[in-house]
Amino acid sequence: MTSTKYLYFIVKTKPQSPGLINAGQICYIKESIYNKKQSVRGRSPSSAKLPVFLLGSLSSLDYDIEVSNMDKLSAQEAELLQALPEDEERLTWFREREALQTALGLTPGTPVIVEEGGEKLRGIIRYIGPITETPLDLISGKFFGIELQGQDRGNGPTDGSYENTTFFPCEKYSGIFAAFSRVRPAVPSSLSPSVPKHSAQTEAEGLNVGDRVTYFIDEKCRHGMVLYLQGDSVKISTDKDESGKRGGEVEVPLHEVVKGEVPAEPESMVVDSPPEEPDTEDLYTDLSVNSVVEVTLGDRNSYGIIRWIGTPLGRQEIMAGLELEEDKGVSDGTIFNERFFSCPNKRALFVKLQSCRPDSRFQSASADPCKKMPKLEETERETEHSAGKLETVPPISTEQVKHILIGRMKGIQGHCNSCYMDAALFSLFSCSSVLDSMLFKSTEPQDAPIQRTLLQDIVNPLRSKGFVEGRHIMKLRQQLQKHGYSHSFTTDEKDPEEFLTVIMHHILALDPLLKLSTGGKVQESYCYQIFLDQNRLLLPTVQQLLEHSFHTAALKLAEAPSCLILQMPRFGKKFKMFDKIIPSLELDITDLLCEGPQQCILCGDLAELECSDCFKESLFSHTGFKIFCGKCSTQVHSHPQRRSHQPTALDIPKAYLASSKTHTLIRDKLELFAVLCIETSHYVSFIKHGPNSNDWIFFDSMADRQGESDGFNIPEVHACPEVGTYLEMSIAELANQVPRDMKGVAKRLFCDAYMYLYQSPSMCLYR
């Protein structure tokens, strides 16, 4: 029960004093004290002060606040606003009076849409009220307990319980407690914010005999010609009467007539009686205001943008107001004396929302008119993969690459500076499973929607169909931005390592991929930036760069990583330290490990000593740390030029030394599976998907574009076997290659590499 012993106020401007009170806080005063103050105050209330208490504060002190700094609230409004956690947010929603009024009219059983983790989920209100106890007889924040429906079941954080108290029963993970700011009616009604009336002339005014018109009888749309006007009615010669015969006449009220022809909708306008409890499976759609849609009118498709969704004219079904691309509509956004939106004349058309479909020109069909549309079974697979199941879709194998991945409108569709994210996700998940554990690991409830988006909307569709729509990447970017990691995740270009660190560390709390040992201490990281103190390499391999960087920083690997993400040495995105870098298809990390047996580089016996002073001497080898057995070390350092060297003992397991058996040393190697490249400010990626030298593909999320500012990007994946040809060349041959003359996209791999991704073959999830 809402208390009537107290009066409630919201602080609309921060008082000069005391400093503990912020705008947006709710305060209260006993009604009896307020009435006494009112009688004493007389006619100068704005300059007077009230001794109020802060709602939800642990302090028992009251504060004298000027009446002019506060606005009075009803107890019901105060309950709704108190459920909001932040003062600034509370004040913002207080000013949205229509939203407050809408929330006050919601009742249990109402179908609603609730925002959760950046997603809009469908559900039914099962509970309205507080979920925490308050002292005295004060109000508490009023929450809406919502049971999720349909495919959104299982996407909530609760089963209808909060802190061991059950407020409504529902399936596990199918309940949500939400403040009113995240809840809106699924079907707009009189509760929803009102639509301003149109004060200009209506469409029916100005009718003349002979005009073609559209009229409605029994909720059915019909066409005819005006015979004559009489008062508030119109005599119409019908194209077809109720029996389907031509040439009849009918008299229709003026307000049921629209000048011009509204093309007949694809389905009947007849409305069945609504069920006792709404069928929420039919109440919801992915379409919303500003969605780009198409609708079949007659024998052709028309395209437009949804500008309004609601239930006009007392109809039961949900209608959509479209702004068409062509002058095929009936008005400028008004119908039957009401304005619902504004657009050029003859561009507005009102149809049932269920008659609208997403604009196929912006979907996954190729811009190539010769390309076939997806088959029914492919569409069904897409529906299955997007149905919210935590299913396992393995990465695309070498045998499947040509069938699933190659072509236009393949890969991940880029949109609004998303190439860094597109390239990173495609590289990690298209053909590799090394980091799939983060798709299934347990995570915090507030982070679960991001994990679901990553798995269900991006990784699974990419692996099953070879294509991810740009809207799913934007959804992920919006979720990340909402978490507060960056206010520009949806608009600005980022670095791949920034995105990967946010996802792996801050969101999914994945264990660090890399553990580095230096000076007896272990440092953890997700990526490794290669640094070089002096550039003595002319045409380096990745193996050489990694070894030189470790040598410079005196680093070792504390353990062999399952995945190694290396950032190439650059000065920003535009300034490269090397004109070319040769990809190392394998990284031998045996000598980079701080523990474990190693081989002498000269005789192959068990190594005991390492000499950092010998590291850059190419006499022994061009790569690798210089490690020796005791005998070879003595011989090497007997040379006059090396007598000053200071070899250090290697950390060899005692059990290994104590064993009398002859051991065959197995070298630890990582295999290359992807490379991210950047030229100027656009990221692309190369994928090594198989064991053969020509098993390479190239991905660009914005390879082409359809249309101008209102168009869309066309991603593309194509094979690039020329890469393998260059990798088989000798270093001398590669050094003589002129970048601009290199075939295909090979130049971008050798000259523009930004990030190399390596994996342990033994640690992939599906191998």
Automatic annotation (TrEMBL):
GO cellular component: centrosome; microtubule; perinuclear region of cytoplasm; plasma membrane; spindle
Region span, Disordered: 360-389
Keywords tagged on the record: Cell membrane, Cell projection, Cytoplasm, Hydrolase, Immunity, Innate immunity, Membrane, Metal-binding, Microtubule, Phosphoprotein, Protease, Thiol protease, Ubl conjugation, Ubl conjugation pathway, Wnt signaling pathway, Zinc
A Pfam family it matches: UCH
Keyword Coiled coil: no
Catalytic activity: Thiol-dependent hydrolysis of ester, thioester, amide, peptide and isopeptide bonds formed by the C-terminal Gly of ubiquitin (a 76-residue protein attached to proteins as an intracellular targeting signal)
Domain CAP-Gly: 134-179, 310-352
Localization in the cell: Cell membrane; Cytoplasm, Cytoskeleton, Cilium basal body; Cytoplasm, Cytoskeleton, Microtubule organizing center, Centrosome; Cytoplasm, Cytoskeleton, Spindle
Domain spans labelled USP: 410-761
EC number(s) stated in the UniProt entry for this protein: 3.4.19.12
Residue ranges with Basic and acidic residues bias: 369-388
Membrane topology, as annotated: Peripheral membrane protein
Top-level taxon of origin: Eukaryota
Quaternary state and interactors: Interacts (via CAP-Gly domain) with IKBKG/NEMO (via proline-rich C-terminal region). Interacts with TRAF2 and TRIP. Interacts with PLK1, DVL1, DVL3, MAVS, TBK1, IKKE and RIGI. Interacts (via CAP-Gly domain) with microtubules. Interacts with HDAC6 and BCL3. Interacts with MAP3K7. Identified in a complex with TRAF6 and SQSTM1. Interacts with OPTN and SQSTM1. Interacts with CEP350. Interacts with RNF31; the interaction is indirect and is mediated via SPATA2.
Family statement: Belongs to the peptidase C19 family.
Official protein name in the record: Ubiquitin carboxyl-terminal hydrolase CYLD
